[in-house]
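User: structure tokens for this one?
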Amino acid sequence: MIIILTGVSGTGKTTIGQQLSKHLDWPFLDADDFHPEANIQKMASGHALTDTDRWPWLDRLRDELSRRIQQRQSAILACSALKQSYRKHLSTDPANIRFVHLQGDYALILARLQQRDKHFMPPELLTSQFDDLEECIHGLIVNIDQSTTQITTEIIVALGLQNRRQTTTLANALMFPEAPRWHNGTLWFTDQHARKVIRMHPDGELHTMAETPDLPGGLGWLPDGTPLVVMMTQRQICRIENGTLREYADLSQLASFHCNDMLVDAQGRCWVGNFGYDLHGGEAIKPAEIILIPPGQNPRVVTHDVIFPNGMAITPDANTLIVAETFAARIRAFSIGANGQLDNPTVWVDLDGGFPDGLCLAQDGSLWVAIPNIGEVLQIEPGGNILTRITTRGRPYACMLDDDNRKIYITSSETDNPDEARRLRSGRIEVATIGEENI
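Assistant:
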């Protein structure tokens, strides 16, 4: 994550940025250090910068932010970014950039500037900065008429950074681990591009439970304990019987593209999503279906128009299905009708550019969501309040809690590209303990 502190000169961007840097252990960047000498001399002589002066400076900042995001580095940048066009230019990757606008009235800020010396920005230019200042439409607004400690705390809490966790790695050298499930004291998952279903003991010991002729997707268990696995490109569900696969349901006439994740509920009903379009072939995004397979009945579509349905969870009362819509950057909730039909879709949370993949529901009603494009697993309350952030070594694609919700297991990889996943073997199983002291 990159935090960009914006506001006119004198709002305390540098002071707050350094406080955040100390608390989060992230590097602090001052946009003033990226100004060419000509800009510094112009401001020092009492002349306001024009857009012609600012754009090369903004380009240098944009390149620096892009580099850090690509390398999955967090940082804090203090930058006036007075106009919306400047902020848009800097927002190279909206899912990984958070603007925090430090706001105060003219008299307060002028008094601060008049007390500051050895700075190239003279108080006389404050009026021009207020003239240029445009409302920060997408960002957190923080009033500066409070202590630096209060401001720093407000930012940390609002961005969900007060409770951060790191992971340890239990298994590595996998191709693309996905669909983690906790079952009878062990973690099951699929290594998609290795075409295996694997069970892992809590100490990291791995056992191959089945090898598959197709890419394996979601996992689940029937009430009698029989494991099921999705065959993605064949668009079918198979039983795993002593390491052998037996067809359970054929979805080829219902799924518009490769099948994906699956949830099996306590009644033995299977809920299956699919891509909806050729993701890796570069096809434009299209909506997909969620298919229901009731025990002993034919599969049927229970809702349309879902954008890349992925991880799913059902609330304890069995009345609501929660679905990650990956490339809509949101999670939606559907009412489950008596016949399994999904109705009344509502947005459970809008992730503001974050692409949710696998998820699991905690005992307290919060969701844990793996978001690969920001490189974090988030614990989120309904409406979007972030309770916990977990930073992973690889890009997290799915997550699963153990029975007592004390540990969360995360499947991660550097890529979901099939060829690269097979070549790099960067897949990992990572684990974080819930309830540790804050980092």
